[in-house]
């Protein structure tokens, strides 16, 4: 467990996995749902992940072509593990 210093919420080290093989909208939905479960704003996630709030917003809308670094940072902040599934 990890304490979120911005909200005082306890975040798990790894809540679940997000598959890159999934549709961008399913990845976006998982990020958004998890963020809301922890009571975090997009700005708080951005600050914790070291990315812009615009990046978080675009990721959650499934509109971004984020760098792998940005996706991993946001996912890790939310306690998610990104898995690449090859066919």
TrEMBL record:
Stored SMART domains: HTH_XRE
Keyword entries, A-Z: DNA-binding
Coiled coil: none
Entry annotated with the keyword DNA-binding: yes
Domain HTH cro/C1-type: 31-85
Any single Gene Ontology cellular-component annotation: cytosol
InterPro entries: Cro/C1-type_HTH, Lambda_DNA-bd_dom_sf, TransReg_Diox_bact_type
Domain of life: Bacteria
Protein's UniProt keywords contain DNA-binding: yes
A GO MF term: DNA-binding transcription factor activity
Name recorded for this polypeptide: Transcriptional regulator, y4mF family
Protein species of origin: Arcanobacterium phocae
């Amino acid at each position: 467990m990890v304490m979120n210093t911005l909200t005082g919420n306890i975040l798990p080290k790894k809540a679940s996995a997000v598959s890159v093989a999934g549709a961008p909208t399913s990845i976006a939905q998982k990020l958004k749902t998890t963020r809301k479960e922890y009571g975090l704003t997009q700005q708080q996630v951005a600050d914790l992940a070291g990315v812009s709030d615009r990046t978080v917003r675009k990721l959650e809308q499934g509109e971004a072509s984020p760098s792998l670094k940005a996706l991993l940072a946001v996912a890790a902040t939310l306690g998610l593990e990104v898995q690449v599934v090859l066919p």
